[in-house]
Structure prediction request, 409 residues.
Amino acid sequence: MRIACVGGGPAGLYLSILMKRQDPGHEITVHERNPAGSTYGWGVTYWASLLDKLETGDPESARAVRENSVRWSDGVAHIGDRTTTHHGDEGFGIGRGRLLDILAGRARSLGVRVAFDDEVADGAALPDADLVVACDGVRSGVRERHAAHFGTEVALGRNRYIWLGTTKVFEAFTFAFVETPHGWIWCYAYGFGDDRSTCVVECSPETWTGLGLDRADEAEGLARLEELFVKLLDGHRLIGRATAGGSAQWLNFRTLTNRTWSHGNVVLLGDAAHTTHYSIGAGTTLALEDAIALADALSTRTGSGTGRPELAPALAAYEKARKAELLSVQSAARHSAQWYENLPRYVDLPPAQMFALLGQRHSPLLPYVPPQLYYRLDRAAGRLESLRRLKRWLGPKLARTLHGSTTKG
Prediction:
């Protein structure tokens, strides 16, 4: 097959690796509009289950990813002057740039052509290809060329957030909540290398404007955030956009869905197909899992006597499998985002209770039960199987019922 991947992120690169391992005869080009070595963002997170899947797909790149990652096993929350720690949440962080270097290098070693500075705005200028993979992100130009067919929908989150780096190296996944005269502002921070961490700052729109962050330029905004999180940063600085010449921007998260993921020989992958709120730390994992699922679908559906994939049934099988697997993740992401949007409901609880509910923020039941009552029920459910079953049954049922009544109203 001749395969063109538009976008040189983790999804497109890993798909090219898997397809070359399946059949070295595939002619694969990855078209990346940015120069080699440049990337946006800082570090990305993932969990041990992803490493197992990468090991199955390509042991060599899995080994390199593991060796270049940092690991944490604790979660720490600073709530004003109070601190609480939770043990046992093992996770991993790796620099996005390092991850892309590993995958691009591995792809090249297998014979994939990785073309940088190669702008393909909407797929129209692509060379003739049997399969065009749109893995060019949430604002995919290839997808937008066929937007009516794909049925793209975007919902903007209420809160504002900004993606930053810092020279402070966090040894645990760290949350910090700071109260200001204009409301709460908080950050998620995690290490991804020997000298860098990611620091994502979030707040309500009222807090954002009240603090003047809507009017500040990047330098002024970073200085203001350093003042607010001075205890957390311990004298270290915040850093804006990772790419040269870029600037860090405050955004509203874009939750993107598509009615269908393929059109002829074009298929969507990663953020071009779907997004999930950053607070569950699953974006990179889901993109790589998309690549695994697409490669599996293409390998198991070949035309009789040709040895080549039957494209239409393969793309349909890929879409069906991934949409089914994403249902629970998308629900968790939606409830996680809503938890932060309703932070005042939880922030005055004792730190241990608030942190426990932070860990339960994916639950569809939590928004409809008084927080302290939910905390007590959750602790009891941990001891009694009957209560665990009731909680698993009641949460989704209550959420659907209340959502339906709200919609009708």
